[in-house]
Amino acid sequence: MPEPANSPNSASPAASSTDPDDLERIDPSVLARFGRLELVARLVVEGVISGLHRSPFKGFSVEFAEHRQYGPGDEIRHIDWRAFGKSDRYYVKEYEEETNLKAYLIIDSSGSMAYAGRTVSKFEHARRLAAALAYLMIRQRDAVGLVTFDRSIRTMLPPRSAPGHFSVLCKALEETRTGGEAPLSGILNTLAERIQRRGLVVILSDGFDALDPLTNALRHLRHRRHEVLFFHTLAPEELEFPFQRPGRFRNLERSEHQVRVDPVSLRANYLERFHAFRSSLKERILGMNADYHEALSASSVETTLLDYLSSRSRRGGGRQ
Amino acid sequence: MSGGVLNGAMLLGLLGILIPPIIHFLSRRREPEIPWGAMQFLDLAPRDRQSLRLTERLLMLARMVLLALVALALARPFWSRQGSAGTNATSLVSAPSLSPPRDVVLILDRSASMSRKEGGVSPHDQAIQWISHFLKQLRRNDAVALIIAGNRVESLVDPPSTIHPRVEEALKLFRPGQGASDLPAAVGQALQILERSERPGRDIIILSDGQRFAWRTEETSRWDLLRDIRNRLTPPPRIWSLNFGDGVKAQEESPPNGSLGSLTVSRPLAVPGAPIEVAATLRNTGNSPLTRMWELRIDHEPIEGSAQVAGPVPPGGETRLTAQVRFPEVGEHLLSIRLQGDDSIGWDNEASIPIEVTSELSVLLVDGEPSLEPLNGETDFVRAALAPTGDDRPLIRTQVIPPDRLNLDALKNQKVVVLANVERLNADQLAAINQHLNGGGGLLIAPGDQSDLTFFNALPWMPATLLADQKEKGLDAQGQREVVHPDPASFKGTMMEPFARGERPALASADLFGAYQLTPASNASVLARLNTGNPWVVERRQGTARVLLLANALDAEGGTLPVNADFVPLLHECVLHLAKREEPHVLQPGTPWELELPSSISADPDLKNLDLIEVPPSSGRTSGFVPISRTEGVARIRYEQTHESGLYRLRLPSPPGGFAHALVEMDEREADLASLSPAETRTLAERTSIQFEASPSDLPLHLLQAESGGRVETWRPLILLALANLCLEVYLTRRLARTQGGGALNGT
């Protein structure tokens, strides 16, 4: 177990970078072979949190009424990080209103998510990230639900905040398989209709769908007043296209479709188009006031989570 | 139009066309399969994809075509256009320029018959003229080689040269010879030259006079071999034959032609004023009776008043020409007999022989039994015979010494030594005699009653062994000595033969008393015999030593020989015969001239060469050096360049000085003017594909016309195409890269 979790007295902010590293050294993917998604998620989150209290996350604009010292049972999200950073104690913000966050996790299970180069597959990465998010939120007493689909919605777990629900979620996650040309935009549209109350829709996808239907579906969700959080899951090979020798690239979603390519001569073109797609997607998502984060499979889940949390705090998160 | 390939094996290279597709196929198999998600960024617009595929296919095609072109070029394809059927002068103007560069080998017959003049022009002249004309008609790129076909084949211009004046230059230096020619050998050498040629157009042109002998029609295996060699070349060279000198008639029509055989002389050494006899055989090789004037010449100058008429000689017959010649001056002279006037063959109208005329001969007479009484000594008659008193210009200078005064000093400068009834010689004297012999001196031995037979029989250079007891047996039953006579019928050799002429030769009546019985040595020659059949005069030549042995003494006790009418000439001939160092060798053309040199030359290790100061002018060479080879202490020369007939002369350093000669006879077969019969022509043409052109002036037309269909090799344009293809391949490769990398963005 990483020792910083038990020694709140260590005060060197500069050592913050070591904690996620320690966790990374005990590679969750290694643990995943032995443990379940649950365990991994817990480890990740605990590590993140304990790392968080080391790092000087400046620039939080969390608004709170007053401080009170943190005690067990308090929701973590109310911790005043800035105050903590100064005094090394947990302080909890008091909120007036009740928060009742309902989050829906949706992981793109189309075939393209199954791509695994030198890292774990995008899908696995997305799963771990989703599990970590679920754990984080349930720990904060937020409700988390899950939608799994292939050609259409297969399972829909309604959002619950009970701690036991986390295991259910993990189990459902583990049972999901990738394959086919799963229609993410269609599912999102359906979801937009079915979710009654406003919630947080977390989408983990590579976005390799047709751009317009996807963004339209996201807009649909936004139109229904849901918060949208899009984790763009990408493999390093998709970002860099490092292939040297000519090869046949077989479509993971449609196995009869393959293209013979000479990567060296194609690379420039590919990169141009890929990054254009990426920036276009990001622009559109940000443009509709949704949240866009990159969840690169080459980065660790912790890093992604940290990035998300820090940016959320910066944006004045805490509220949904 | 027909075509073909010169190097068919290379066509297998066309299988190389399969290489690019195979490589393509194999490399495709080895390509990795990558499961991929971001497919939409790999997709190219259909237009791009089509263009890509097209480029790929074009590229493979370009590579295949490249390999095919290279393989085809290596196979050296050609196509030949057939010439137009009719001879069309205008078409020839343009046609030659289209045919490929040619190699032509000219074979010029240099047999003696080529230089016979018919109406002022010889076939040789006509051939030279034709060659000049022909060279003008060739193009700049055509190469010409020139071969001279004599007894031996010589290349004047080899390898073929495109510098045509070079051929003309070589022809200027060339002179027709006096020998025969060997055309099959010349054709063989021409084929060898053409073997090294790369050009498809190759021709051999034989310029001859149609004389049958030159063609060696009976040597069929040689012609078969030539045919095989010719067929091995691809394409086979064409062989043409031209006849010049329309005077070559069939045998039935050949004019009378006088042909002189070689000269013989009674003795090759003369003294001024002393006559020698010269003889030659005149043959009529023509078909009508021959009557001709002939004359004597000394050193190519006619002797006045020596002209005589010879003949009439029937066709195929011969007659003997003889004359007596006196030489006025000392020195080396060339004696010739020449037929006056012109007949068709000029080179056999003269025959020559070198004669050495010496001022005086020193002869040493060793008197084994001197006597104060006149005419009682052994050598008195000899001396009187050789140097008669009252002669104010003695030709032979004699000196008489008793045996005890015989030593090296006495022998100095003596040309001939006569041992008359000498008992024996002591060791020093023997050594001196040996030295005399080794220096080329002559020795005459006349044994008498004093002679120690055991001593003489032991000498290594004795021409014969003397049998002692026969002397005693020379007594008949009455105790009288046996009397024998020389038998002129047995006289042999140039020395003795003149004494056998006439109805009653004088020597036949000479009485010889007590002649020894001689048993000739193995390499001795019996020049005369007695009426008993026993040898009388025996000669032995060993190296340069000459020894003559008589069977009897030369004094009055030996018989009546000293008073015989022919005694004086006989002794003269003996002495002159002995004094001449050597007779010229008579050789057939091409036979090497081998000569053993006198020991005085062998003894001088610094002498490496001998001067060759004269060679026949028709050989085209001037003087040179002949190297001396020494084995086992004997010096020899071997001269092999005796292809031309005529006189060859070497100078010998003194001692002993003088010259060595060789006379190379003319090849008599060359005098046969018979020409190739039509049947033989046909056989030759069939056997060897030689084209016999009726009219030499037509040949250039035929040559060039047949060539205007010539072969055109196409490998050059093929290679150019291949290079262009290579550029195309590079361009397509770049285009392929560009297409993949820079395809239009399709809307995703």
Quickly describe the structure.
Helix content of chain A is 42%, strand content 18%. With 320 residues, chain A is of the alpha/beta class.
Structure explained in plain terms:
The complex is a heterodimer of chains A (320) and B (748). In chain A, strand 6, helix 8 (211-223) and strand 7 form a beta-alpha-beta unit. Helices cover 42% and strands 18% of the residues of chain A. The two termini of chain A are 32 Å apart. Chain A has 320 residues and is of the alpha/beta class. In chain A, helix 1 (18-25) runs antiparallel to helix 3 (37-52). Chain A has 11 helices and 10 strands. The radius of gyration of chain A is 20 Å and the shape is globular. The model of chain A is unreliable at 1-24, 55-67 and 94-98 (pLDDT under 50). In chain A, the strands form 3 sheets. Chain A has a 6-stranded mixed beta sheet, sandwiched between helices. A two-stranded antiparallel sheet of chain A has the order 1-2. Chain B has 748 residues and is an alpha/beta fold. In chain B, strands 20-19-21-22-30-29-28-25 form an 8-stranded mixed beta sheet. In chain B, strand 4 (102-109), helix 4 (123-137) and strand 5 (143-149) form a beta-alpha-beta unit. Chain B starts with a strand and ends in a 7-residue tail after the last helix. The chains are: A alpha/beta (320), B alpha/beta (748). Strand 8 (247-251) of chain A pairs parallel with strand 2 (33-36) of chain B, so a sheet runs across the interface.
Features:
heterodimer; A: 320 residues; alpha/beta; six-stranded mixed β-sheet; two-stranded antiparallel ribbon; 18% strand; globular; disordered N terminus; B: 748 residues; eight-stranded mixed β-sheet; seven-stranded mixed β-sheet; 19 helices; 27% helix; 29% strand; elongated; disordered C terminus
**Main pleated sheet of chain B:** 8 strands, mixed
Low-pLDDT windows of residues of chain B: 83-96, 247-252, 743-748
Alpha-beta classification of chain A: alpha/beta
Spatial strand sequence of the major β-sheet of chain B: 20-19-21-22-30-29-28-25
Strand order of the largest sheet of chain A: 5-4-3-6-7-10
Number of helices of chain A: 11
Radius of gyration of chain A: 20 Å
Mean pLDDT of chain A: 75
Instruction: Tell me how many strands of chain B there are.
Output: 39
Radius of gyration of chain B, CA atoms, in whole angstroms: 41 Å
How far is it from the N-terminal to the C-terminal residue of chain B, by CA?
62 Å
Strand content of chain B: 25-35%
**Distance between the terminal alpha carbons of chain A, to the nearest Å?**
32 Å
Oligomer: heterodimer
Q: Return residue spans of chain A where pLDDT drops below 50 for at least 5 consecutive residues.
A: 1-24, 55-67, 94-98
Number of helices of chain B: 19
Largest interface: A-B, 38 and 23 residues
